[in-house]
Amino acid sequence: MSSSSTTRDIPVSQGILHRWPSALGLTIAVVQLATDPDTERIAIVTGVALLCYLGAAALNRSWVAWAGCLVFGAVVVTSQAVDVSWWVVCAVVAAALVVVGVVLRVPRPPLTAQAAALTAYGGVAVAALFLAPRAGLALTGVALACHAVWDVIHYRRNQVVPRSLAEFCVLLDVPLGVGAIVLAITG
Q: Which domain of life is it from (predicted)?
């Protein structure tokens, strides 16, 4: 059997290195699931992801999304250290990002879309915090898994956030969200 001239043999290691965002997202999802996640932890993952997208839109710089993973993660940790609800602090940060985007006169459609997504997905995740533990876990799992649709849209369009971040998020959001739903049902 001969291979066609358009077929390339890509070494496995090169293929894996090319998919590092997928591997990283999946690894984090597995670690989260292995450490018995609760509603709050899944809601935090959802909130940080949403802030990453909003931050990139507000500053009109896609790389900000990756930096946001660290920065907005630190915001959550700091809010918990000073005993302030993380979601309240995230809401204040989100409002500040929208104001910054308006002041910088960034393109309105991406800023508006990211603010709306944060309100919708984030609102569901925060509302889940006030439900019974299993119901809340299932609802945050649904919100996170559904956020993967948002990730796929951004991956395909290659807008707002880097494709690598959208790829990372899909492989974090789907397994972790579905895993949370399964744990809520079976737990």
A: Bacteria
